[in-house]
Amino acid sequence: MILPPIPTPFDREGRLDTEAFRELAEALEPLVDGLLIYGSNGEGVHLTPEERARGLRALKPRKPFLVGLMEETVPQAERALLEAQEAGAMALLATPPRYYHASLGEGLVAYYKALAERMPIFLYHVPQNTKVDLPLSAVETLAQHPRITGIKDSSGDLTRLAFYQAHLRDDFRVFTGHAPTFLGALALGAEGGILAAANLAPRAYRSLLEAFRTGRLSEAQALQKRLFPLGNLLSRGGVPLLKQAMRHLGLPAGYPRPPYPQESPIWKEFRPVLEALKEEGWLL
Amino acid sequence: MILPPIPTPFDREGRLDTEAFRELAEALEPLVDGLLIYGSNGEGVHLTPEERARGLRALKPRKPFLVGLMEETVPQAERALLEAQEAGAMALLATPPRYYHASLGEGLVAYYKALAERMPIFLYHVPQNTKVDLPLSAVETLAQHPRITGIKDSSGDLTRLAFYQAHLRDDFRVFTGHAPTFLGALALGAEGGILAAANLAPRAYRSLLEAFRTGRLSEAQALQKRLFPLGNLLSRGGVPLLKQAMRHLGLPAGYPRPPYPQESPIWKEFRPVLEALKEEGWLL
Amino acid sequence: MILPPIPTPFDREGRLDTEAFRELAEALEPLVDGLLIYGSNGEGVHLTPEERARGLRALKPRKPFLVGLMEETVPQAERALLEAQEAGAMALLATPPRYYHASLGEGLVAYYKALAERMPIFLYHVPQNTKVDLPLSAVETLAQHPRITGIKDSSGDLTRLAFYQAHLRDDFRVFTGHAPTFLGALALGAEGGILAAANLAPRAYRSLLEAFRTGRLSEAQALQKRLFPLGNLLSRGGVPLLKQAMRHLGLPAGYPRPPYPQESPIWKEFRPVLEALKEEGWLL
Amino acid sequence: MILPPIPTPFDREGRLDTEAFRELAEALEPLVDGLLIYGSNGEGVHLTPEERARGLRALKPRKPFLVGLMEETVPQAERALLEAQEAGAMALLATPPRYYHASLGEGLVAYYKALAERMPIFLYHVPQNTKVDLPLSAVETLAQHPRITGIKDSSGDLTRLAFYQAHLRDDFRVFTGHAPTFLGALALGAEGGILAAANLAPRAYRSLLEAFRTGRLSEAQALQKRLFPLGNLLSRGGVPLLKQAMRHLGLPAGYPRPPYPQESPIWKEFRPVLEALKEEGWLL
Lengths: 284, 284, 284, 284
What we know:
By secondary structure, the first copy, chain A, is of the alpha/beta class. Helices cover 45% and strands 11% of the residues of chain A. Chain A has one domain: Aldolase class I (TIM Barrel, Alpha-Beta Barrel). In chain A, helix 2 runs parallel beside helix 3 and helix 10 packs across helix 11. The longest helix of chain A has 32 residues. Chains in contact: A-B, A-C, B-D, C-D. At the A-B interface, helix 3, helix 4, helix 5 and helix 10 of A face helix 3, helix 4, helix 5 and helix 10 of B.
């Protein structure tokens, strides 16, 4: 499965644009296997609770979708949990509490168990953003819970994926969120990718996955090599670069919320990479 | 000036207890020079916007107070900014945006300037919690803004304080938030402390500050040495330990919000330190 | 190619045992494609220049071998360079200067170019030990030098391998030194492994490599999964664990040099992993 | 006490210049309380054992001196230990083993105890260079050994100094190696400084120390503030900058050993700082 973490569009003044949001989701959905809403590139942490609810209501996904949650405590998570459930999300993708992480201790496992009382949960390890660890020992414990059914690991630390492959139950679902090492992650057991780059080149990543799954390894390697610069620059440029690139392709992705920059400092480096892939027919 | 960052009381189920909050503030205020509300130990990030407003309205501080803000974007900050202003805060103490910090760039300076359009701002550097840097070059730029009037630096990195002393304008106000190095910070130009430990031993930290300011250096050193274990263990134990210690002293500090643990794993190590200081008359 | 970084045997008092060294090399060599001497697990940094020369002279490898070098300056490297050349090493595997790395600057590239004046050089990136970076930009520059012909990358950071695959010339030789992600590294273009674990299970790693190269992907994945605990624990346990395991298998690997511990604290966890693999016939 | 860690002069081709070394020591010694040879700025790790011995024999210090040692194992340390003892060093200043630090464990304490069998030892914590920790718990243990008599702490982490002040025996000698926080370190109990900057401005640092010790705190603060840029830039520039500045002042400090750069990239920023201090009479 390839899922893009769709961006949440704001206008130039920072207002949430729910119409653009719906259009964007509708443009992407036919090209992929599902969506991640409010994920690593979805600026969920940039929304007030009201905006968050309003945005989610504006979307009518037909394919399976995940909803991201980056909260700090159980009581704060409750509203978003309810709303994700009502919207019909296949699971909630939740990061660990962050701000007081150093004194969280056993609370880390307790947090996920509390969330899982309500609905299926995917663990979300994205230390570039959260700056906290999700220890392998905690993943191992949590993966035994019947409603904790998967993980998105965006760390790019493939030792973690090798650990999941070797130590977790076979039906625990592993997705990588790190495009630059995508083929490596597949070799180490990931079932698919939830990749910012899949907002730009959904077909290409689906082709790579398909080549790998059908044993056409040198084709998969050629695609991995071809797509590396796209994923690698996007990792560096983050949301401002992703939105700029999507706008460049005519998609209603909007702007990052202020004070985040509206133009990426590496757009000049990224643009030729993007255009070359476009010419070869890899972009949406 | 010595200001405690007062904790925000929750009951055992995680509900905000505004009455306890007011009592706590009233108990502490006479012993200190002012308060920090929703700061490093105030769990501001553990409140919904409504709760945050409700808690602030419950307090009626008579001494100067700061209000902490740990938001991600300008639009999200607006409500809290307005409420702090209405409540009469002397300044808003604001951390940098965190989640997408890697792509913030010039947005860091833009963020603080946007906040400062409304009211006086203190910069807040507390990387243990935010996990992001507030670069010295940005501090140097921002300290030139007429409404950015001070900084609380909780990093314990005293090279930063030495930098402020050497390179910032004389009336830029520097507070340390790091008790274990308090006397070092004073020697390097800090005017006072905003210290979790001042929730427990306000008199002791005021005595230390007074000894330093009046040139009684060996007395200041003796107090620094005496108080080191208190501040050092509290740095390690964080909010769960602070609240447990305050409850132990009979203060209505309540519990950390779930899933944070209600008892600290280092309470056993901390308790004798606390009780010895209590016997010597240093606690409130 | 699978090469083990053979350990350098010391007796219990810390004396270099050249006879054991030669025996060990002779026991391993037939099972692998070559050797790395004084590499990541070879304690080259634990030898005086005289001992280093004496050890190398004691060996008579018949297969291709690399010699590791962890020096700080060009003049200090000269003797070892000469000795490796005389011994017939296929290349010198050199880490960057470490101690004053922060002020090395352009000296990093200059260092490798100076070494390459004499003989073929492999870059050696092993930040767990060196604690310094070998920036991708430097690798890209150095890979254009005709006598800098390969790299051993032990970091386990597979983004680096994906970068090599996408950006370096096709005949630049890439070896991983990180067993836990071995199959991921192969998928991302590594030609083989220089793995501590290949001192224990040379046949198993050669089988994994062979399965991958001949397109038997699910067999390769099964082996990767099977071998993960071996490589992963060995990464954590380092030289003391490797030597203890080799002694346990009857190999003359000796002891780490004092003050390094003679027994590993994770031997108890490692032993059953080792014995299970032994029963299945995977060890040498 | 103020001691400079004197640089070891190499000529432009990287040859050790023992005559310059002796001249340099003789020029500095009258202005300070003693010397550190082969310390943080002495490039001890850039010498072969023979050169190291030759350099040490060339010096005839009259004041107390320390000799630095950055070895990896006990057997490798033995020769340098003997030579330091014969030369009459007041103590050996030794960093922890580095390369396999992750598997050192109890060996850390064992290492220092083995060294202390021969002569007085100072612990040396300089993580900028060694990239390893010297845990406070190990310092606490080692400070009880009768021949482990002091520490040089160059980390700039003043929580450590506060810990030493609060938890170690009163006669354990603490020196800071971090000029930018010098006055903070004194307030937290350091008895003096072993400072690269004291190679350039020995009188200034002695004046600062004297002002502090005689209770002239605002004078000490003024000097701290005045000297901050010198120490701070020197921390960033390291050996290449120190040597360039000393050459600029006419001292026979020579050049860093290749491949280290002969000119510092921040010399242009440093030079006006240096010259302003020179005009005010603070340099040697």
